[in-house]
Amino acid sequence: MGKTFLIIVDAHSIRLEVEIVSSTSAEATIQVLIKLFAMHGLPEQLVSDNGAAFTSHQFKDFMSKNGIHHSLTSPYHPRSNCLAERAVQTFKSAVKKLDEPMNTHIFHFLLQYRITPQCTTGLSPLELLMGRRLRTIMDLARPDMTIKSEGETGQNSSTKATYSFLLSR
């Protein structure tokens, strides 16, 4: 595949951000964070691994100027940032199943991840972030959330095929 990704997880909402980056430099990392902070505001704390981008003077200055407390995980102990490590594994698993262009695949993966309720909260990351349930493709197939049996609704096999198609995507 040959791509480098910066994967960021919001600890409150468990929202996942994935960016393809040109390099693992502090400058490239900071540019992604500037874009992210412009959308969601400045976090109080950022936890990262000990990669060169995160330990550079440039990155430390960026964190300091923005009033962000930066914590580094223990070297050789990825479990110390288990939320991020789990997100990386989830993303890697999804990328293995590529059947479309990379950017399209990432967008589809992120949408599905962000609208799926998390077992720890019972809500999706976007519901936690935005305070409301987001409309999805499933809402098009089933506008009213009450499901009736086939006998009550008179649904035909083409409707069932639509549900199957949507669920298989």
Automatic annotation (TrEMBL):
Pfam hit, one: rve
All copies of domain Integrase catalytic, residue ranges: 1-133
Signal sequence annotation: none
GO molecular-function term, one example from the UniProt record: nucleic acid binding
GO biological process, one term: DNA integration
Ranges of biased composition (kind: Polar residues): 152-169
Protein name per Swiss-Prot or TrEMBL: Integrase catalytic domain-containing protein
Species assigned in the record: Amphimedon queenslandica (Sponge)
